[in-house]
Automatic annotation (TrEMBL), chain A:
Spans through the membrane: 24-49, 61-81, 93-112, 132-152, 173-194
Keyword set, alphabetical order: Cell membrane, Membrane, Transmembrane, Transmembrane helix
Endpoints of the signal sequence: none
Pfam families the UniProt entry points to: COX3
Protein name: Cytochrome c oxidase subunit 3
Limits of the Heme-copper oxidase subunit III family profile domain: 1-196
Gene Ontology BP term (one): aerobic electron transport chain
Any one Gene Ontology molecular-function term assigned to this protein's record: cytochrome-c oxidase activity
InterPro entries, alphabetized: Cyt_c/ubiquinol_Oxase_su3, Cyt_c_oxidase-like_su3, Cyt_c_oxidase_su3-like_sf, Cyt_c_oxidase_su3_a-hlx
Places the protein is found: Cell membrane
GO CC terms in record: plasma membrane
Family: Belongs to the cytochrome c oxidase subunit 3 family.
PANTHER family in the record: CYTOCHROME BO(3) UBIQUINOL OXIDASE SUBUNIT 3, CYTOCHROME C OXIDASE SUBUNIT III
Organism: Parapedobacter composti
Automatic annotation (TrEMBL), chain B:
PANTHER family: CYTOCHROME C OXIDASE SUBUNIT 2, CYTOCHROME C OXIDASE, SUBUNIT II
Species for this entry: Parapedobacter composti
Reaction(s) catalysed by this chain's protein: 4 Fe(II)-[cytochrome c] + O2 + 8 H(+)(in) = 4 Fe(III)-[cytochrome c] + 2 H2O + 4 H(+)(out)
Cofactor(s) listed: Cu cation
Domain of life: Bacteria
Record-given protein name: Cytochrome c oxidase subunit 2
UniProtKB/TrEMBL annotation, chain C:
Protein origin, superkingdom: Bacteria
SUPFAM superfamilies: Cytochrome c oxidase subunit I-like (SSF81442)
Gene3D superfamilies tied to this protein: Cytochrome c oxidase-like, subunit I domain
Organism listed in the record: Parapedobacter composti
One Pfam family recorded for the sequence: COX1
Protein name as catalogued: Cytochrome c oxidase subunit 1
PROSITE patterns reported for this sequence: COX1, COX1_CUB
Chain spans, region Disordered: 604-629
Location relative to the cell: Membrane
Lineage of source species: Bacteria, Pseudomonadati, Bacteroidota, Sphingobacteriia, Sphingobacteriales
């Protein structure tokens, strides 16, 4: 009897976890739709006239930030692997590294804004294609903040020493979301490069 | 159900109380007329709920509001009269006459009365059901019969109402289209109306008819019929075919209206209509037949359209006091806006196009009926075509109009000769000054560069 | 068995973040994570918002009916917005705007799918709660905050947003053009952003619950149509609401930071604005990419709810279950490629207009299929007229009459003359206003016993239905003709144009009909709230329905089923199956218990089961033949 109850309980818990992870996937679809809308807005706008378009080279800072976020994805994946192997010290360390890289990414993006506005490519601009660069990166940074919060939550969970199942689950979600943010950034970067 | 039980004593009390109130306030005499009318109208619809002949309700209620509001209006007017005396000296806009509250109070009372009435009816109904139950008759299926009958009545009255509406309101709203393409649109409108009306009637006969015929009875069991692929295919394909026909018809009409060949575009009379809150300005191209460019940055109090007089085409542009068009000649209207979105809409012409700031939109059409002819046809000798704004644009949206006249070629020429030029003396001066400063500026720039 | 039950409830509660033994007032009624309570919260908030929006509509109906009369009482309530007892023209636009916004988003999106997705998805699928109860709670509270902000905009000095519910810039972006575009518009945008967050949180939850948390045996083709509709609605919402975020964000930048995404070449009241290079059409594209799917977000749950109710109360399986699902899927897919039909005459490339017209009219086909299937379901049924059934029939009627006028508006050539006129108002009030509201009311009457454990008063329900049904037709039907005559919508009064004079009496008639229909809602409000506490106690399955929610006990508790979650064996529409002694067979009854009524296609090609059935039939040969008739 008790064994069976345990079995049902585990099964329902497993369904719950599966469903929550699925929620994250759906959320990511939603977020992607938002950026897709911005992209199509950009295309429609830019196609509307010859005087529109980015008309500047994207700053090199974007390349560095791309490297940063790719590296952070790798460290995140390593942290997840460590969590699964119950190498908790390593997990904690790698999480911290990931967070640091994330903050570095954030700083690099802000730096890129500085570079752009020094060139006269400012946010309030009669060529809205250029304003779009800020919108894309700004909205992405808003998501990065959310991503950092998720990473921090995973870290706190580790420090508070929550059960291993939940620890791995949190890490799983955090890694998924963090990879998504990386891929989203690469999408945005490539999209902007193509329209440069 | 609890409230019904409790309401027994309350009902009597409230009824008595409200009667006292009604009788004791003499001012009520003023509004008895409207309350009684409204009471009948109200209970008509509320109490009898649909077994009332809706057509008669249509007729009755359609007529009654007029005297009703007249009565209400007079009381209100009197109230205002009193108030205005009271507030003649001081500025106390909210010093309302007590009459206002009383009127509102009466309406609230009236609603309460109706509610009480409904409770009483509900109560009686309950007793009736109780007697039925005691007599051993069924207490659920007779209810289904009532609703089934109501649906049948609803179907018949509703169909008659639709017919009545088509005849009366339809006659009010359909006028001959006064343009070439308008006739094609009207033809298509008619075809679509016929098709949709047939579908409307048939489906509603089905819907309400089945509801009537297959109302629940204790004997029958419903027919288990989960699907039939053939039928489903039929009623997927048939609407698809009908719609395909409509789509093709509509598509080609639409293309013929919007996709005007270059040649025809050139031959048309070009005029420009510019919307702003809450007026329209009409610009005729002058002798050269070309409308000058505009640049919103050049807007000044004198040149409030921001016409660019560097463009010599604009020098002979004329300001139209209204839209006057020669009959049977294609017109290409260039539509634009100074501030926000507006919509250039002439219902008689079946013409509509939005006015978008920073963008030119066009609509080409050929008026075929002069205003005079239209007046003759309608027998209304004050009738005018009118252009109005159809896109929400602020407080004055409801009154943003321009008269449209379609006249013969000669009348048009005559009228056009009287229209003033945009490039007035004052503007000429302003333009010369600005040009001079611009030249100076550029010379300075050149000097600096050197 | 009971040990299993308790254990499984515990596991769920553990996950929900709080134990069900010590639920305080706050966790039970306010910050509840129980899907049933959240559904009720959505419903009550939706009803309150609906009443507010209805009052707003009565206000502007009064203005339209008696444009030159004064109503000093209005000044008492509205102050400067009704100076001298007359509604101010800009306030009129604000009323129209907020009425539309509240009705479309707060009542028919959140109130409808928020209520019934929360209530029915776990119930009808056999789940103990949503995938993430916490997100579900957040979803409600974001919605609630959105409502508060929207109402708060009435108390702003410059008035609430008044650029129409479509908030087209530049009008919505330039406070100089209309005072409602100042602080009121800011609040509108904040409210809408909160609302979208709520919808996305809710929507992901619905989808994930449907896909992951179905009970044993509940495969996709055994789901009730309600679930299909709510599921597809959530998908549409998830894909389209984020697009509105983008549109709104860009508008916020234009309004507050001076960017030029949507603005260009503006000279507002003599003043040249600095914005340059933007495109107002861009906003319309982004807005309607959400806005049109939004129409189906509003409508599809109503279609789902009525399918269920009509089938139950006709005591007949829904006709063409698969066709119904496929047409819902068709509507879902097509809803994303028709948005341009709102922009035929806005300066969009006319060729695009032609393309959008084709896609738009295609969407009429699945809608037609649904209508015919409804009719076929009624045909030879044994129809019980419960209040829910009356509303369902009313919904079908509105869906037909409103849908048919869509064929006019979807046709770009006809739309030239009908765009932005009262014809449009009539069309969407019938097909998405009345039809969806009737779907919602039908749902409320049908699932009230499940929500509150008590029955609503049937007689008042009947009164409510007939007043509302007739009232809605009397209000909206005459509007078609005004539109054909060329009366544009959102006109403050009809007094300035000679050709509109003839419609003033019609307007009065419409206003009276609207007032009476609005008073008819008192019957509902009273019925709803008094029945929560004083209604007759409900039985477990008051409508003799097949779906899973009626297998739960009347008393609510977190976890829904006291024991193990029931297993599902059959589709939800086995009503009046020949050979069975009752006229319904719940989904939880295995085929082995209904040997006398099984049909070959019930087994979906399972040869073993078919063999057993054949053997049984051979053994009991004469019986099924007789009962089939």
């Amino acid at each position: 009897m008790i064994a069976m109850a345990r079995y049902t309980q585990d099964k329902e818990e497993l369904t719950q976890q599966k469903a929550k992870k699925f929620n994250l996937w759906l959320g990511m679809i939603g977020m992607f739709m938002m950026f897709a809308a911005l992209s199509s807005g950009f295309i429609v706008y830019t196609a509307g006239g010859a005087d529109r378009g980015i008309k500047t080279l994207l700053p090199d800072a974007f390349i560095y930030s791309t490297v940063l976020i790719v590296v952070s994805s790798v460290t995140m994946q390593m942290a997840y692997a460590a969590a699964k192997r119950t190498a908790f010290g390593r997990q904690k360390l790698l999480l911290l590294v990931t967070i640091a890289l994330g903050i570095g990414f954030f700083a690099m993006q802000v730096h890129a804004w500085g570079v752009l506005s020094d060139r006269g490519v400012v946010f309030v601009n009669s060529n809205a294609s250029q304003s779009f660069i800020y919108v894309f990166t700004g909205m992405h940074l808003a998501h990065i903040i959310a991503g950092l919060a998720v990473l921090a939550r995973a870290l706190v969970g580790r420090i508070r020493n929550i059960p291993q199942v939940n620890n791995v689950f949190r890490m799983d979600l955090a890694a998924l979301f963090w990879h998504f943010l990386g891929i989203l950034w690469i999408y945005i970067y490539v999209f902007l490069l193509l329209n440069q | 159900m609890g409230f019904i039980k409790n309401s027994n004593i309350r009902t009597v009390f409230l009824l008595a109380f409200s009667m006292c109130v009604l009788l004791s306030i003499p001012a009520f005499a003023q509004s008895t007329a409207d309350t009684s009318v409204q009471a009948t109208a109200g209970t008509d619809t509320a109490g009898t709920v649909g077994n009332a002949d809706t057509a008669s309700t249509v007729a009755v209620t359609g007529d009654t509001p007029a005297p009703d509001t007249a009565a209400g209006g007079t009381t209100v007017d009197e109230a205002i009269g009193v108030t205005s005396v009271a507030t003649a000296e001081g500025d106390q806009p909210l010093d309302l006459d007590p009459q206002v509250y009383q009127n509102a109070f009466y309406y609230v009372l009236l609603v309460l009365l109706i509610c009480i009435l409904i409770v009483v009816v509900g109560r009686i109904w309950q007793i009736y059901e109780l007697t039925r139950r005691m007599a051993g008759k069924d207490t659920t299926y007779y209810m289904h019969n009532i609703h089934a009958t109501l649906f049948l009545v609803c179907l018949i009255v509703g169909l008659y109402g639709v017919y009545w509406s088509y005849v009366h309101h339809g006659a009010q709203s359909m006028r001959d289209a006064a343009t070439e393409h308008g006739e094609r649109i009207d033809l298509m409108f008619m075809i679509t109306t016929v098709i949709t009306t047939i579908v409307l009637v048939l489906t509603h006969i089905g819907l309400f008819g089945f509801a009537f015929k297959y109302r629940a009875t204790p004997q029958r069991k419903a027919y288990f019929y989960p699907h039939n692929n053939t039928i489903e295919k039929v009623w997927t394909i048939v609407p698809a075919i009908v719609l395909t026909v409509l789509v093709l018809f509509g598509f080609f009409t639409w293309r013929s209206i919007t996709n005007v060949p270059e040649e025809d575009q050139k031959n048309a009379l070009h005029i420009e209509v510019i919307g702003e809150q809450f007026t329209w300005t009409v610009r005729y191209p002058g002798r050269d037949g070309v409308i000058g460019e505009r640049n919103y940055r050049l807007t000044t109090p004198l040149n409030n359209l921001g016409i660019d007089f560097n463009d010599k085409n604009s020098w002979d542009d004329q300001l139209g006091s209204e839209i006057v068009l020669p009959v049977n000649k294609p017109v290409r209207v260039q539509i634009s806006s100074k501030d926000i979105l507006h919509s250039f809409y002439i219902p008689d012409f079946r013409v509509q196009m939005n006015a978008v700031p920073g963008m030119k939109t066009y609509f080409q059409f050929t008026p075929t009926i002069t205003t005079e002819e239209m007046r003759d046809r309608l027998g209304d000798y004050n009738y005018d075509y009118v252009m109005l704004c159809a896109k929400i644009c602020g407080g004055g949206h409801y009154n943003m109009q321009k008269k449209v006249r379609v006249v013969t070629e000669e009348e048009y020429r005559e009228w056009l000769n009287e229209q003033p030029y945009f490039f007035t003396e004052d503007l000429r001066k302003e333009f010369q000054v600005s040009e001079a400063t611009a030249n100076e500026g550029s010379e300075k720039l050149l000097a600096n560069a050197n | 068995m009971s040990t299993i039950g308790n254990a499984s409830i515990h596991s769920v509660d553990h996950h929900g973040g709080h134990g069900h033994h010590h639920e305080s007032f706050w966790t039970k009624y306010v910050f509840s994570q129980d899907h049933k309570m959240i559904a009720k919260q959505f419903l009550v908030t939706g009803i309150v918002m609906a009443v507010i929006a209805m009052l707003l509509s009565i206000l502007f109906r009064i203005q339209l009916a008696w444009p030159d009369k004064e109503f000093p009482i209005l000044e008492l309530f509205l102050g400067k917005w009704a100076e001298g007892g007359r509604i101010h023209p800009e306030f009129f636009l604000a009323l129209v705007t907020i009425h539309g916004t509240i009705m479309v988003f707060f009542v028919l999106t959140a109130g409808l799918s928020g209520t019934f997705a929360n209530l029915l998805i776990p119930y009808q699928l056999g789940a103990r709660d949503m995938a993430s109860p916490f997100m579900n709670m957040l979803s409600y509270w974001f919605f609630f905050a959105a409502c508060v902000v929207m109402i708060a905009s009435f108390f702003v000095e410059s008035g609430p947003a008044s650029a129409g519910w479509t908030i087209y810039p530049p009008l919505s972006a330039v406070p100089k053009a209309i005072s409602g575009s100042a602080a009121g518009m800011t609040l509108w945008l904040i409210s809408m952003t909160l609302f979208i967050v709520s919808q996305v949180l809710g929507g992901t939850n619905y989808i994930s619950t449907v896909l992951n948390m179905r009970t044993k045996g509940m495969d996709l083709w055994k789901m009730p149509l309600t679930i299909w509709a709510l599921f597809l609605t959530a998908i549409v919402g998830l894909l389209s609401f984020p697009v509105l975020v983008s549109a709104v964000v860009l508008l916020v930048f234009d309004r507050s930071f001076g960017t030029s995404f949507y603005l260009s070449d503006l000279v507002v009241q003599g003043q040249i604005l600095p914005n340059e290079g933007g495109s107002p059409i861009l906003f319309q594209h982004l807005f309607w990419f959400l806005g049109h799917p939004e129409v189906y977000i509003v409508l599809m749950p109503a279609l789902g709810l009525t399918s269920e109710v009509i089938s139950t109360n006709s005591r007949k399986p829904i006709f063409g279950y698969h066709a119904m699902v496929y047409s819902l899927i068709g509507i879902t897919v097509l809803s994303f490629i028709v948005w341009g039909h709102h922009m035929f005459v806005t300066g969009m490339n006319p060729f695009l207009g032609g393309v959008f017209m084709i896609t738009t009219l295609i969407i009429a086909v699945p809608s037609a299929v649904k209508v015919f299937n409804y009719l076929a379901t009624l045909w030879r049924g044994n129809i019980r007229f419960t209040p829910a059934m009356l509303f369902a029939i009313g919904m079908v009627s509105f869906f037909i009459s409103g849908g048919l006028t869509g064929i006019f508006l979807g046709n770009s050539a006809l739309d030239i003359n009908l765009h932005d006129t009262y014809f449009v108002v009539a069309h969407f009030h019938l097909v998405m206003g009345s039809a969806s509201i009737f779907g919602m009311l039908c749902g409320v009457y049908h699932w009230f016993p499940k929500m509150f454990g008590r029955m609503m008063n049937e007689k008042l329900g009947y009164l409510h239905f007939w007043v509302t049904f007739i009232g809605a037709y009397l209000v909206f039907f005459p509007m078609h003709f005004m539109g054909i005559d060329g009366v544009p919508r959102r006109y403050y009064s009809f007094t300035e144009f000679p050709f509109m004079d003839k419609w003033i009496s019609v307007n009065e008639f419409v206003t009276w009909a609207a007032i009476i229909a609005a008073l008819g809602q008192l019957a509902f409000i009273w019925n709803f709230f008094s029945s929560i506490w004083f209604g007759k106690r409900a039985t477990q399955n008051p409508w003799s329905s097949n779906t899973l929610e009626w297998t739960t006990p009347v008393e609510h508790f977190h976890g829904n089923w006291p024991g193990e979650i029931p297993t599902v064996y059959r589709w939800p529409y086995d009503y009046s199956k020949p050979g069975h002694h009752e006229d319904f067979i719940p989904q939880t009854v295995p085929f082995s218990e209904t040997m006398s009524s099984n049909l070959p296609h019930d087994f979906e090609g399972n040869q073993e089961a078919e063999r057993i059935q054949r053997e049984w039939e051979l053994a009991n040969k004469p019986q099924p033949e007789k009962e089939a008739e």
